[in-house]
Design goal:
With about 625 residues, the chain is α+β, with helices and mostly antiparallel strands. It is built from 16 helices and 14 strands.
């Protein structure tokens, strides 16, 4: 503002010079006028160039965070090298010889084995041909490109970007033009009585009455110019008015007049300064960053949900395999019992007991088959891939093996990483920065309105055409200028003070929210680490239980063949074996889900694949690097 005031002062001094040297006045006024125009333009140009520099630290932090890969390396976060399940089992107990109950990964889904149906091997081969094998990385890639929830969330940054563009356009120059044509025909009108005061004795002190004679006036009034909003809060206007007044009557005249005007209005208190007028742009920029953080958080949440759905499908496949295996063992036992009854080695009641065991396992097999269908449909819903529609019968087969390693995590380090990486916390910090800017703006709004107005115009002489009028305009024979001040202040100013108070309270509320988030992050990290350790212990315990139950089933079956046990006791041992196997796969699934929860609690994704989110289209997924 100081250069502008100095130049305006210089222009006013030039007006005083007109008393001494009228000849140089037009040239000097034009020079002062031409000096103001580039100065006002340079103010906006300078502000445009420094717009990116007027940023707060949180903006740089947001950009840095949004450029990071969403990846949690469990090995790097662990205090010691991961221990696999075999090493953990050897450490806790001596290796026991377990019954090998492993079946092929394909399962019979279309009915149970019988004499009139395909064998299990034939159905397994058909299932492998019809099924689609997908790794976790492939599932993530498909979900990122087609998931409906992600598509909906991706609109938020685009909308926020348009709001930023809208705010940046508030300083656009405005070109305006006005044109008005009028035709007025007035009759004779009686006017005032006046008394002359003149040097002519014949007129001096004569009382006369004035009348307006009939006259027809045709007018063309126009104005063309440009208004330049300044980032300091003021407005510069340059315009070129013109008019043509054609009067016919007792006295006829046809006059053409033009002008060139410059004006500037600059607030000095309220709405004054770069920081106040650019605050809305900075708020829109922070809102865009917050929207990106929120969308990224939504993407991480969806990927975490898809990861859990993948492991739920893996559990459903394995559980169906276990139930199929249980059913086949029960059928084999029934066949063996019937043969022994025919040979007279076993009582016939054992046939009924064996048939009950087969029917019990048939029900469990049907339930497992339904659970598999539900798990596949859930994963297909997340994928939203036309190739694997929810109503499609295509089977999805998981190929990524579970990560069965135990880790000793540094809890404090994880909490520290979570404080730095959690996008919900980053979003809150961005909102706090917005609140600070709003508070500063509302503080400025409580000030009085005090503005400086200045205008200067060059007027042409009355000529017979517009061309002659514009020619005389450059001579600066006629001009006008003014400078003024405007002051305005509400009596109580309560409305603006109330808005400021509300903004301050909202910021304090958000600060409390941030403290709550930080405390919640600590609790989440510790809770998920305890759950992770619990699920690992469950895996180890159930793995031992499977080995013991398998050995026990072998022993019970052997004693049945020797006549020392009934089929009921054999089936109970088989049930314990199946339940132990199901508990083991559930523990493994829960362990994988706990790892996903740990990554999410730290604000990242589990490192089965390196996922890079684009600012708008979240469709870039790299291959597995583990």
């Amino acid at each position: 503002m100081k250069p502008v005031i100095l130049i305006l002062s210089f222009a006013n001094k030039l007006t005083l010079l007109s008393l001494h040297n009228r000849r140089f006045l037009p040239l000097l006024k034009w020079l002062s006028f031409l000096a103001i125009v580039p100065l006002c333009t340079s103010i906006n140009a300078y502000a445009d160039n420094t717009d990116s520099a007027i940023q707060i630290d949180i903006d740089a932090k947001a950009k840095h965070r949004l450029q990071q890969d969403e990846f949690l390396n469990l090995d790097a976060s662990s205090q010691a090298k991961g221990m696999d399940i075999e090493q953990a089992t050897e450490q806790l107990n001596a290796q026991r010889k377990a019954l090998d109950l492993t079946l092929d990964s394909g399962l019979i889904l279309n009915g149970l084995a019988s004499d009139n149906r395909q064998t299990s091997d034939q159905q397994l081969s058909q299932q492998k041909t019809q099924g689609v094998k997908l790794s976790l990385a492939e599932i993530r890639a498909k979900a990122l490109s087609a998931n409906l929830s992600l598509k909906i969330a991706n609109f938020n940054p685009v909308i926020a970007r348009t709001q930023l563009d809208e705010e940046r356009a508030k300083f656009d120059q405005i070109i305006f033009a006005n044109l008005k044509y009028g035709d007025k025909d007035t009759p004779e009108i009686s006017s005032d009585n006046i008394r002359f005061t003149s040097n002519n004795p014949n007129l001096d002190d004569e009382l006369v009455k004035l009348n307006k004679t009939p006259i027809r006036t045709k007018s063309i009034l126009g104005d063309v110019g440009i208004a330049v909003p300044l980032r300091t809060g003021g407005t510069v206007t340059i315009s070129a008015p013109f008019e043509n007044i054609d009067k016919t009557g007792d006295f006829t005249s046809n006059q053409y007049r033009t002008g060139l005007k410059f004006s500037i209005s600059q607030p000095l208190l309220r709405d004054a300064g770069f920081s106040v007028n650019e605050a809305s742009i900075q708020i829109a920029g922070l809102n865009e960053q917050a929207s990106l953080a929120s969308t990224r958080l939504q993407s991480i949440r969806i990927i975490a949900t898809i990861d859990k759905a993948y492991w739920a499908l893996n559990q459903a496949w394995t559980e169906l395999e276990i139930r199929q295996q249980q059913y086949e063992f029960a059928v084999q036992n029934l066949i063996m019992v019937r043969k022994r009854v025919q040979e007279g080695l076993t009582a016939s009641i054992e046939i009924n007991r064996s048939e009950i065991g087969v029917n019990d396992r048939l029900e469990q097999l049907i339930i497992a088959k339904t659970n598999l269908s539900l798990a596949q449909r859930q994963l297909k819903f997340f994928l939203n891939d036309p190739q694997y529609a929810v109503t499609d019968e295509t089977n999805l087969i998981t190929t990524t093996p579970p990560d069965l390693y135990n880790y000793q995590f540094d809890r404090q380090n994880l909490v520290k990483n979570a404080q730095a990486n959690r996008l919900d916390l980053l979003e809150t910090e961005l909102r706090l920065s917005e609140d600070s800017l709003r508070v500063a703006v509302l503080q400025n709004q409580t000030l009085p309105l005090f503005s400086l107005d200045y205008a200067y115009g060059s007027l042409s002489d009355s000529e017979s055409s517009f061309s002659r009028s514009y020619s005389s305009l450059g001579q600066f024979d006629f001009n006008e200028w003014y400078i003024g001040l405007r002051f305005e202040l509400p009596v109580s100013n309560d409305a603006r003070k109330a808005r400021l108070s509300r903004a301050v309270e909202q910021r304090l509320q958000r600060l409390s929210t941030k403290e709550l988030q930080q405390l919640s992050i600590q609790r989440e990290i510790y809770d998920v680490l305890d759950t992770l350790e619990q699920n690992w212990q469950r895996i180890v315990a159930n793995k031992q239980q499977v080995a013991i139950a398998g050995t026990n089933y072998e022993a019970e079956l052997k004693q049945f063949k020797e006549g020392l046990r009934t089929m009921t006791e054999v089936l109970e041992a088989l049930t314990r074996l199946g339940d132990a196997q199901v508990r083991e796969i559930k523990a493994i699934t829960d362990y994988q889900a706990s790892q996903v929860d740990l990554a999410f609690a730290t604000g990242t994704l589990l490192g089965y694949s390196r996922v890079n989110f684009d600012r708008i289209n979240f469709d870039h997924v790299n291959s597995p690097t583990r």
